[in-house]
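Here is this case:
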Amino acid sequence: MTQVTASVEVAVDADTAFTIFTEEMDLWQVRSPISFYDSARAIAKRCEPGVGGRVMEVYDDGVFEIARITVWEPGKRLSWKDTHDDVEVDIWFEPTDHGTTTVRVEARVPEGGTDLGGTSIVRVGPHWFAQWVARRDSSPHEIIELPRLNLELYYRQPVTAMRWLADAFGFELQPNLPADESDGVPPWIETRAGDAALMLFQLDAPRSGPPSHVPFIYVDDLDAHFERAERHGATIVQPIHQHGYRCYVCEDLEGNRWTFAQARPTMR
């Protein structure tokens, strides 16, 4: 049997965490093409309450069942069995001593069983859920679609690179990221720049020549960002300068080039 587990702590009680997880699934799950089985037709994602309820995608002409609820214990536990593969998922809502809740997600694939994406809830679900809980009281309860353009980045050591990018550039780390490559390399590591996704993958072959694509990212405080990047060892290619917009250019720990520019206050 294959088993994967991840957990995250959220600043609400267990009953509230359970309600948010089940009733606001379409708000906390990031809406991207890979979040749906049929992204060309899906317009929503829902969770029907109670044992026997469906986790499903909603279409104009009906629904597509993703999983069937097997355990429904509000404030304690939610479990489902995937409909299209052999993955079984358990989510525990465990109160802490200081009023928060640890949400623990576990996915299992029995010996000889198939995983057609069911275990991905462990890799991305806790991170997405925690982000939504943290901002839901101050954000509109409206669905935000992932932009059409997102970015894949390849590194020899993607775990080490992601931790460095968090220190130097301020990207948020997803929960349960290994300490380094010796603890395993996830299939991908995801972070965000505004609404866009940056996804880190492992580079399988030596890179030939310099990278040909340069991420261009707007940040809230360019001067503070520049100081932070320089302090953590980024190689400054061009310091802050004015070119119609204020920006600077640097290279990360594996020599990939980045451009950071000053954002406007209204940018998401």
In short: The mean pLDDT is 91.
